[in-house]
Design brief:
2 domains, 6-stranded parallel β-sheet, alpha/beta, 9-stranded mixed β-sheet, Dihydrodipicolinate Reductase, domain 2
């Protein structure tokens, strides 16, 4: 059985969850080194996870270690430069955090360069591994809600924080059928200067290739699904996100921070309910185990592979294009805009902070 070498860049909380995932699969992966600009943090990280080498420079780490897997957990404004270093040093897999970029042009470069280099990509849309997400997946695939007709995704955090997560989960519950077109509106400029720059609220209508319709709401005016006030940046705020799959004979709904429920053809008029909550320590090891199985050829593709992540990112950014240009945007995009959509939003939207008072 092959055991794959790993180097991790970014030793903050998200990097730690990735390290947990690799440690839980120590029979398949060997984390040989970690890197952070804060050497003290990297050293503590190395002690915690039993990692032998510590670096403060990614280029030096990759040159010395030559890992099979390069994993990084950094803020979204540091993506392409790290991917380029992975390509330079011949890694075979790059595992990284969402969103894949802040702009479409950068995302295009990332995926095209990795495809040319033969590098596999996997993006951490790992919430789908939660037991409540898996329960809903089983219900949908069993046909208990009949033929899927509509999917409604919502998230209280802004688009760049959870938008690509829930676009990915729409695709997941819909059998990876691609998005065909998007029509959207966006308001609010308060979060355009955030580390994850986004309009404050986006709402979109879409159609998938298989005819299923989708409604997507992300940001300040998305509905509440987690009980309580859930003030901005409170843990409940971050888990106040949900996806509901409607079918011809019922529906199934999963909420990141509040379990799942379903009404099916065989539930005899009763609501099926179950627990579940956001738990990266549970989800990340399963995401990493699927990475091993993908590399070994045991599964045809990873549920969070680069192809589906890039399509989901295009769909999310097409929402901005639709809002800015006031038209339907068809996918896949015939042409990738090279300018900054975030800058255009700042120039176009009336200035307001829709999160004030939330």
């Amino acid at each position: 059985m092959t055991r794959y070498s790993v180097a991790i860049a970014g030793c903050g909380p998200r990097g730690a969850y990735h390290a947990e995932g690799f440690a839980a699969n120590a029979d398949r992966f060997d984390v040989t080194a970690c890197c952070d600009l804060d050497v003290g943090r990297a050293e503590e990280f190395a002690r915690r996870f039993g990692i032998g080498k510590v670096y403060s420079d990614v280029d030096a780490m990759l040159a010395a270690e030559k890992p099979y897997v390069f994993c990084f957990a950094t803020l979204p404004d540091v993506r392409l430069s790290l991917v380029e270093l992975g390509i330079k040093h011949g890694v075979k897999v790059i595992a990284f955090e969402k969103p894949v970029a802040t702009e479409l042009a950068e995302a295009q470069q990332i995926f095209e360069r990795c495809r040319e280099a033969g590098i596999k990509l996997v993006v951490s849309h790992q919430q789908k591994y939660g037991p409540h997400f898996q329960a809903v997946k089983r219900i949908v695939e069993s046909g208990e809600i009949g033929k899927v007709t509509k999917i409604h995704a919502t998230a209280r955090p802004w688009l760049s924080q959870l938008g690509t997560h829930f676009m990915d989960y729409m695709l997941y519950f819909n059998g990876r059928s691609p998005v065909k077109w998007v029509v959207a509106q966006a308001i609010g400029t308060g979060m355009l200067t955030d580390s994850h720059p986004s309009a404050d609220y986006v709402i979109a209508d879409m159609e998938f290739e298989n005819g299923v319709r989708g409604i997507f709401e992300c940001g300040a005016h998305a509905p509440h699904f987690v009980p309580g006030e859930n003030p901005l940046r409170d843990i409940k705020f971050w888990t106040d996100s949900s996806i509901t799959i409607h079918g011809t004979h019922g529906y199934a709904e999963v909420t990141t921070g509040n379990g799942y429920r379903a009404f099916t053809r065989n539930s005899q008029g009763e609501m099926i309910e179950g627990d579940g909550n956001f738990n990266p320590s549970y989800e990340q090891p399963l995401y990493i185990r699927d990475l091993a199985d993908w590399l070994d050829g045991k599964i045809a593709t990873h549920p969070c592979d680069g192809d589906i992540a890039y399509h989901g990112f295009q769909a999310v950014m097409a929402m901005y294009m639709s809002a800015l240009d006031r038209k339907r945007v068809d996918l896949p995009l015939a042409e990738i805009p090279q300018g900054s959509l975030i800058a255009r939003l700042g120039e176009t939207l009336p200035h307001s902070d829709e999160y004030q008072g939330q």
